[in-house]
Amino acid sequence: MRIGDYHGGGHRIIKSTVLIILLVLATVSDFKTYRIPNKLILSGLVISFYFQFLEGSFLSVLYSLGILLLICIVFLPIYYIRAIGAGDIKLFAMISCFVGMKQGIQVIIVAFIIGGVFSIVKLFYYHIFRSQLQSLAEYITQTYYLKKIVPYSSISSKKKNVIHFSFPILLSTILLIGGDFISLNVLLF
Hints:
The chain is mainly alpha-helical. The protein has one domain (10-188). The protein is built from eight helices and no strands. Residues 18-120 form the Prepilin type IV endopeptidase peptidase domain. GO terms for molecular function: aspartic-type endopeptidase activity. It comes from Anaerosporobacter mobilis DSM 15930. The chain crosses the membrane at residues 12-28, 40-59, 65-84, 105-128, 162-188.
């Protein structure tokens, strides 16, 4: 039996544990430095490619590279206006290389929902909901009249307005993996 064969879910546990450890390290770094190290992302990608190779073939690795490229292209406009950080995009790409495109999309959707909730709570906590809504309206008006998309600097310029998006990404991944293992246990028992 190859390492890539799913026997009792052990392989999935190892793969998921490695992914969660990488995400915890990324989240800690994000909270401390507002950055996610490229070395961490690169290490995660190499590890995910290794798992892909063990599970399938070299074509699986090429498929993962395609996922990586697609996610970077899709999120480029959101990054351009500074609504999401480059490290967060790279985390999404790394996660999708670990779990596949379908589950990667699920992680992304749930992470945005969690991040949205965190954002709203933070806006009310700091009593800046109204001022940020006004800034957003000004940004939309400016973009409309200039006919050009520019970075939304109001959010990125004040650290108290920043959401460490790596944390919703971590939570989303844990929810996905937890749901996966619940399904796996139901099937096994």
